[in-house]
Amino acid sequence: MTGPTVVAALQRLTKQQLHAKVMRGWARGIDRHGKGTFADRIECSIQALDKQLAGSLPTLETIDRAMDAEPSVLDDYFEAKGKRLVDKEAVCDADDCGLLIARVLVMLNEAEHPNGPGGRAIVPQEYLAGEKLMRDLHAASARWIQRCTEIRQPLSVVA
Fold first, then answer.
1. What is the model's pLDDT at position 155?
2. What is the block-wise mean pLDDT of the chain (159 residues), using blocks of 10 residues?
3. Spatial separation of the C-alpha atoms in residues 66 and 139, rounded to whole Å
4. pLDDT number for residue 64
């Protein structure tokens, strides 16, 4: 079966494109920490940093130090590859969605139970008691739909 996929198409970057993507991260690090501090944090001289900014690609060891100094340093590179880097322990927006849906189902079953205040009819106090859960569900479903919209957008062409 062939068809659309959520996996980004492989795109090889030229050396100049790769350098530009990495240096955007370097620029964020310099902007956030100052040139001297950023150079110190990646353990290189100002002259070596200037050489990298002018066109020399940093070593993997330097990139590793830069990741410690500025966690977003490779965001532009990953964006061009259709990827993103997140912390290992990061919580996904949808992680609690199943639990939320289960809570809403329990609340609805209790509200519609024949032994409830209104019998099978949901009464105003039950609506109000379930309002926060329903608002949370509404927000979670909106995030889900927004993510679907983002996935369906065509990947931009990187020059």
1. 60
2. 54 91 94 95 95 94 95 91 81 72 92 91 92 92 88 63
3. 36
4. 95
Cα radius of gyration rounded to whole Å, the chain: 25
- What is the full DSSP assignment across 76-89? HHHHHTT-----TT
Closest CA to 63 of 41, 86, 37: 41
42-80 burial, b if ≥16 CB within 10 A, otherwise e? bebeeeebeebeeeeebeeebbebbbebbeebbbbbebb
**CA-based torsion, 61, 80, 15, 26: positive or negative:** negative
Beta carbons of 23 and 80 less than 8 angstroms apart = no
Q: Which pLDDT value is given to residue 2?
A: 46
Task: Give the Cα separation of 49 and 35 in Å (integer).
Answer: 8
Predicted pLDDT at 69: 94
Output the six-digit token pair for 89. Answer: 């322990």
The number of residues making up the chain comes to 159
CA distances from 16 to 52, 83, 138 (A): 12, 20, 45
CB 26 within 8 A of CB 52: yes
